[in-house]
Amino acid sequence: MASKLVLNRLRSLCRVSQLSDVRFDKLRDPVSIFSTSQNQVTWRSYSEASQPTPINPPPPPPPSPNTSTTTSSSLNEFELAKFSAIAETWWDAEGPFKPLHLMNPTRLAFIRSTLCRHFRKDPNCTRPFEGLKFVDVGCGGGILSEPLARMGATVTGVDAVDKNIKIARLHADLDPQTSSIEYRCTTAESLVEEQRQFDAVIALEVIEHVADPAGFCKSLSALTIPGGATVISTINRSMRAYATAIVAAEYLLHWLPKGTHQWSSFLTPEELVLILQRASISVQEMAGFVYNPLTGRWSLSDDISVNFIAFGTKSAKKDETLD
Ligand SMILES: C[S@@+](CC[C@H](N)C(=O)[O-])C[C@H]1O[C@@H](n2cnc3c(N)ncnc32)[C@H](O)[C@@H]1O
Question: In which residue ranges is the amino acid composition biased (Pro residues) (predicted)?
Answer without folding.
Answer: 54-65
